[in-house]
Amino acid sequence: MKLVQIIDLFKSFQQGELQIQALRGLSMDMEEGEFSALVGPSGSGKTTLMNCLGALDRPDRGSIQVGIQRLGELKQNELSDFRLHQIGFVFQAYNLLPVLTALENVEYVLILQGVQKKERMQRAKQILSDVGLADLGDRFPRQLSGGQQQRVAVARALVSRPRIVLADEPTANLDSENTGRLLDIMEEMCDRYQTAFLFSTHDDRVVQRARRVILLKDGQVQ
């Protein structure tokens, strides 16, 4: 079932006196439960596309539709609500809150969503168990390895039950063993919950595991 439809997307940036055209009429679709890698050289538009799809940036023109929602028709507060409920983000630098434990980092998203304490604790503990960290929920990020921190970040992205997870170079700081473990977890979650995953990556290990590879060049899908 079609989840995302992007049509004729344009986005430019001002860089000093130069105007950089990051996206040039890009069009693409995504299905529910997709496990896809977005690849291309630096400057091809990968990050810009991810930011537009995640409602962090607005395109200059063109349309993005996720389910029945057209992002261009949403007001700023509606876009914030869309990000909170529909999109999960996984970053290269983990972006965990250092003053919160692993469990509290995962639970924080559900607090923002207004989920009641009993339910959010159950869901946060379950997702930490799913990523193999059931016994480490009371540890702070500084007490976790890089691979463990990234698994907490994945748990945080998934606990809100988003329709799409956008992962920006999630394996860049991980060794082969932790990369394989992380991809196993993500693939299992994709199949279990029919959450779509889109990776922006230069990592061949991710590309080899992807079920679809989308090549960008000069702001367009090749």
How do the strands and helices of this protein lay out in sequence?
Blueprint: E1 2-15, E2 18-31, E3 35-39, H1 46-53, E4 61-66, E5 69-70, H2 76-86, E6 87-90, H3 102-113, H4 117-130, H5 146-159, E7 164-168, H6 176-193, E8 196-200, H7 204-209, E9 212-217, E10 220-221
Parallel strand pairs: 3-8, 3-9, 6-7, 7-8
Antiparallel strand pairs: 1-2, 1-4, 4-5, 9-10
Query: Which series of helices and strands comes N to C?
Result: EEEHEEHEHHHEHEHEE
CATH architectural category: 3-Layer(aba) Sandwich
Low-pLDDT sequence parts: none
**What can be said about the biggest beta sheet?**
6 strands, mixed
Structural class: alpha/beta
CA-to-CA gap between the ends? Answer: 23 Å
Give the overall pLDDT as a whole number: 92
Just give the CATH class. Alpha Beta
Strand proportion: 25-35%
Strand order of the largest sheet: 6-7-8-3-9-10
What do you see in this structure?
The protein is an alpha/beta fold and 222 residues long. It has a single domain, classed as P-loop containing nucleotide triphosphate hydrolases (Rossmann fold). It has helices spanning 46-53, 76-86, 102-113, 117-130, 146-159, 176-193, 204-209; strands spanning 2-15, 18-31, 35-39, 61-66, 69-70, 87-90, 164-168, 196-200, 212-217, 220-221. Strands 6-7-8-3-9-10 form a six-stranded mixed beta sheet, sandwiched between helices. Strand 1 (2-15) and strand 2 (18-31) form a beta hairpin. Helix 3 packs across helix 4 (117-130).
